[in-house]
Design a protein that fits this description.
The structure is a homodimer of 724-residue chains. With 724 residues, chain A is of the alpha+beta class. In chain A, 15% of the residues lie in helices and 36% in strands. Chain A is built from 11 helices and 43 strands. An 8-stranded mixed sheet of chain A has the order 36-37-39-38-40-41-42-43, sandwiched between helices. In chain A, strands 13, 14, 15, 18 and 19 form a 5-stranded antiparallel sheet that branches. In chain A, strands 1-2-3-4 form a 4-stranded antiparallel sheet. The radius of gyration of chain A is 27 Å and the shape is globular. Chains A and B meet through strand 16, helix 10, strand 43 and helix 11 of A and strand 16, helix 10, strand 43 and helix 11 of B.
């Protein structure tokens, strides 16, 4: 009898456990936590087009499958087969790969690019030395560019190392990204289409001040100097070299004076003869779109110039029409929103392809010239009929695919379902593989026939949070401080929300340009830590203030010369909205942000000391004169030109006003927002007799990544639990 | 009627306020706080002997008064008169000064030594350039040595700058202290008695590793490298030069190999012909007391050698008997306690002057040869009868003055009152000015006639804490962990202590060698912040564990090769004693310490994670292999010789065991316990997923000084209030 009771009791207890929804641990919700990835929605991994009719993806991570648009599938390669081709890969899943010419698979392996021709099962490889980085393949020519230390090389299937540059000055860096990755720059090498020429950035940092990073893991702490040009100070000088494979000579483009400019969005002409560069002055208010002769290095012409009172920010290279090497698409925000402009290579605007109070977010591709094309285009000889884009036309919170007519004012949406679509266009433009989500849909993949906009579902992911206690998420609209428009905000309520109770709330803020914290995709763009905090009884709130992305130039550029000012005004509109709710305890409002969000957090805590009880500011900018030239001067001009703006935005000037509990956190190796920022704020608090809390992650850079991020988020959680 | 009531009420309220004792603010109790100095007991400022019968002191800071031993007083100089002598002094009180030859006053002013002959009111000066440091005067010769950057100079009343050394290598440093101020070294220049020769240290740091300190107040953070030799690594090489004023030549002593040794306790022979040096091997277990010819630099002889299994630590230069240039006093702990040994210059021990289980803490002086001297000394020709010392004979918690017979085993105490005496002996040894205090007596100054030990009170300070609420302080004795003896501890109870209540307690710990936290002087040696915390309801507790000072070699040297081990055992005896009290809430015990005390705090928190709820560790040593050679290797040997000891004492190895809340604090410019220490602990906590709190004082060195110290102590106070 005793046993039976125990048994019954245990059974009942287990059942009730099963029925009860689960709470998160930090390892579930923090990127870097042991369980974080298990909440990624399932998908067709490595999905990509092979040719006009077929695409491929991974099955169980170990089998590469191709599937025709009609649905027939076959295995292309297994992990085992791949490992027979090379002894150089130890991974447990088929690695990163790409198709070429519809039949050749390229795998990126350590010190090796492996090529596998599916039809005849032959393979070949290009190998390169250990320590190489920034690899860049021209498949047609079979040449792989890479950098070692500060120099540039390339390899072929015959040779491992051919020097493009042999510079002994370690502060002249060839073949790497420049201008601190601003202006859409993310690489330093640019093969001509046929691979006969290699254009590359050559960056001279000799004149740039050093910033010291201290490695405390050494036997005795050691300094590592990085080059860090601060606003108003000497910046790097960039040249563009063109290496001629045939004769081994390098020609540097004759870009003239002043040297202290930005050379952005490099593109080759389809005929390998010309190089196009969007050149920006240091003041960032004038962009000249220039064409250079790749052989001589001479400037041929300026196609057009863009100017702006605040700043011009070219971010996308020109895209030539596949059928016409004399015509290209240029993206510009000159109308107030990012749109497409069709130009010819004389620099004549043919027509503006898209317009309206919304933005093009990317170009997906074109119709391919084929017998389906009408041929009846007004643009004589042009075989493309449409350019396919991703855009915010329906809503700035959504991304949809559109077919935009090249010759007439017409555009058509390809994607029905509300949400965020990430479509991949087939080579001929007849199909899209559309991976999408919305707040109700974790992930779906549809095959869309572009002409008819017919949709067929290929894959539907389950909800990875089934069985977990998630609080209600609301997307909201709140008037901006200048009442010009409605800002987007997001509120997450505790799972057991009771409107009659009073809850503390935490505002998570970023607020800087090039950001959007809220969208209509899965989870509304939220990071799951917010749901974790909601489970702990905090209402979580976020608002995208003016200055953030996808809402046009005016919305963004209002921040110019005084960062934080309008951003804070908008955040306080969110604050007012939030604290107007009866279920919010307005004496217990916290705020948390990192980087620009750390700047915002510290600014909010000091400008509105009565509003916020607790704040956590990570990697914060404290003084924009200690931030870098490219980003900093775009938004703030130089300290000499804008002393008042710099002074007004230096957060340490307001340290004396701080009243709430503020935890400041920094990575000691931060090369982006250097450690000087938060230490200056600490110093000022000490001088002003103001209490402050602080933490440092000694080995981390601008973000605390990996498993250590769990430590960070535990610290932040604890801080709000202790003091909010 | 209404007015009258108000008046009565106000009066009553004011009276009750007056009756109520005051509580402290942090500005009262923190060194650096605006009100801290107002609690210094009053005294006769700048008290010193002028000649055998007269002493001087400051009246109201602005008038220098001399007073004969019979009590008659007269003004010597006013601040106004001093300012008429020089335009170079802006201070509000008579500055630091010293008497010479009974009639000449020397004032230390900026870039100037001003001399003033009282009798004929004449004055003269020696000036020296701005930026000079380490000034060292030979009054007889009228020469003032000083350093500029890394070189050595001297000035006279005629010349401002005569170069002794002109070294261009910035890592060879002349005339400054060496060996990181260990072995009693605190300066780098040593005039011969007649001023014809200047002996000086020359330190070559070329081979010492740099440690980077980062200045974040610069426009862009800048590195300042300091030389920091870590245990087991290459150390500085020190030479001793002798500069001959007559010919401008410098002879370097031929100290031979190995160069990596310690040259300590330099002393001149009275006849200006010989230099004596206590030379210690890098292992610090063998000291050779050597004599060098000052002219040739050749070693004449080794007078004697001291060895010790743990370490030898000479800290006091020889002292010659005034009447006999062939005899000197040597202080040594060779008997287990620091005592006096009379030697002749052949290196023969004449006799041990003092002995017993107590220590000589300083030599005050001698009887002067005069007609009072008996002349009947056994030591033929010797005119001194007594040497006067300060010692711990009565108790290691007290300091008393003793007359020790030079020729027979006899010593006599000069000071009656229990407590800590700081006597100044008159030139002829007939009188003492005895400034003393005990736990009941803030400060008294007595004039003592040494022959009769007769005492006359000159000054009695009032209690600066009258009207303030001070909790009861108890000095306690607690058996050491090895039960070999009784350790001293101190407990401070809250002012409104109620035995029936439960109190949280904070253990303040230092625990390292060369320290004594508790004595029988005023306030028992406590820092007033402890009384501040007692007012907030914390019981404050401190214990001097084995390893601390004034209790002999065994008591100290038990720590050898495993710092912290026995120290912690003893501290835990204190913990047991403390928590055995019914009025102590043993679940709420905190611990706080700085430097070695930060090491102890972190060690205690990690070794006894269940014992301590909250800790604050400032400037902590975390890994002795990151500490400097001189101090570190004395107690730990080198990492190669003692890998287990180093490993056992590396606190980050125990980071994973930390359970309580620990706040670690560091000065970013700390050149003593470099910042690497605490950052390594932070790094390990992050790796181990262990919560930790941290704070940094960006511009501070090993201690947070000045007004900023109030910020520090507020932070520490807040931490205990938040979490204990």
């Amino acid at each position: 009898m005793k046993y039976l009771l125990s048994f019954l009791f245990i059974t009942f207890f287990s059942l009730s456990l099963l029925a009860q929804k689960k709470s998160f641990t930090l390892d579930d919700v923090v990127n870097g936590g042991t369980n974080y990835r298990s909440f990624y929605p399932e998908t067709l991994a490595s999905l990509q087009w092979i040719n006009d009719d077929t695409f491929s993806y991974l099955q169980d991570d170990t089998t590469l499958v191709c599937q025709s648009i009609t649905g027939s599938k076959k295995k292309v390669l297994t992990l085992g087969e791949l490992k027979e081709l090379t002894s150089n890969y130890k991974g447990q899943k088929i690695p990163s790969h790409q198709w070429h010419n519809g039949d050749v698979l390229e795998f990126r392996l350590p010190q090796e690019r492996l090529f596998y021709k599916v039809k005849d099962k032959t393979s070949w490889r290009i190998t390169y030395p250990e320590g190489a980085a920034n690899t860049d393949l021209n498949y047609a020519a079979g040449r792989l560019a890479y950098t070692m230390d500060n120099n540039l090389y390339y390899a072929t299937s015959q040779e491992e190392k051919i020097a493009v540059s042999e510079n002994e000055n370690p502060h002249i860096i060839n073949g790497q990204t420049v201008h601190r990755n601003e202006f859409g720059i993310h690489k330093g090498t640019f093969w001509s289409p046929n691979g006969d020429f290699l254009a590359f950035y050559s960056k001279d940092e000799t004149m740039v001040e050093d910033y010291p990073l201290v490695d405390i893991l050494a036997r005795q702490a050691k300094v590592r100097m990085i080059k860090y040009p601060m606003a108003g100070m000497s910046s790097e000088e960039v040249k563009v070299g063109i290496y001629n494979v045939a004769n081994g000579n390098t020609t540097y483009l004759d870009t003239g004076e002043p040297k202290d400019r930005y050379f952005t969005n490099i593109a080759w002409s389809p005929d390998n003869r010309f190089l196009y560069i969007a050149e920006l002055n240091r003041g960032q208010d004038t962009m000249m779109f220039n064409c250079y002769n790749a052989n001589s290095g001479q400037r041929i012409k300026t196609l057009f110039t863009e100017t702006d009172e605040e700043y011009v920010e070219p971010q996308n290279p020109m895209v030539f029409l596949p059928s016409d090497p004399e015509k290209f698409i240029w993206q510009s925000r000159r109308s107030g929103y990012n749109h497409l402009y069709l130009y010819n290579t004389n620099g004549e605007l043919i027509r503006q392809l898209s317009k309206g109070k919304w933005e093009v977010t990317s170009i997906l591709g074109f119709d391919k010239a084929d017998n389906r094309g009408s041929g009846k285009t007004k643009l004589k000889g042009l075989k493309e009929k449409h350019i396919y884009i991703s855009a915010t036309k329906k809503s700035h919170l959504e991304r949809h695919a559109y077919a935009v007519s090249i010759d007439k004012e017409e555009m058509r949406c390809m994607t029905d379902n509300e949400g965020v679509h990430r479509p991949q266009l087939s080579p001929n433009g007849h199909y899209m593989l559309d991976t999408w989500s919305n707040t109700e849909t974790p992930l779906k993949i549809d095959l869309i026939k572009t002409k008819e906009a017919m949709t067929q579902n290929l894959f539907t992911a389950g909800n990875p949070y089934d069985g977990y206690e998630l609080g209600e998420m609301k997307l909201l609209e709140i008037p901006s401080a200048d009442t010009s428009l409605l800002l987007t905000a997001r509120m997450i309520l505790p799972p057991d929300f009771d409107r009659k109770k009073k809850y503390p709330a935490i505002i998570y803020v970023y607020g800087g340009p090039h950001s959007q914290m809220i969208n209509q995709g899965w989870l509304g763009g939220v990071r799951m830590w917010q749901h974790y905090m909601a489970q702990k009884g905090f209402v979580m709130f976020t608002l995208d203030n003016r200055g953030t992305s996808y809402r046009g130039a005016d919305f963004e550029q209002v921040i110019h010369r005084e960062l934080g000012k309008h951003e804070m005004e908008d955040q306080m509109k969110g604050y007012e909205y939030l604290t107007a709710h009866a279920f919010i305890d307005s004496t217990r409002i916290g705020v948390f942000g990192w980087s620009f969000g750390g700047f915002m957090t510290t600014s909010l805590m000091t400008h509105y000391p009565e509003a916020f009880k607790v704040g956590v500011a990570g990697g914060p900018v404290i003084d924009w004169s200690n931030y870098e030239v490219m980003y900093g001067e775009r938004y703030m001009d130089s300290p000499a030109d804008n002393p008042k703006g710099y002074s007004n935005t230096t957060v340490s000037h307001y340290a004396k006003d701080l009243k709430g509990r503020l935890l400041m956190i920094h990575g000691a190796q931060d090369p982006v927002v250097v450690w000087q920022h938060s230490q200056k704020f600490v110093r000022q608090c000490v001088k002003d007799g103001v209490p402050l809390d602080y933490f440092v992650y000694p080995t981390h850079e601008h973000n605390v990544r990996g498993q250590d991020r769990v430590h960070l988020m535990r610290k932040i959680t604890q801080y709000f639990e202790d003091f909010l």
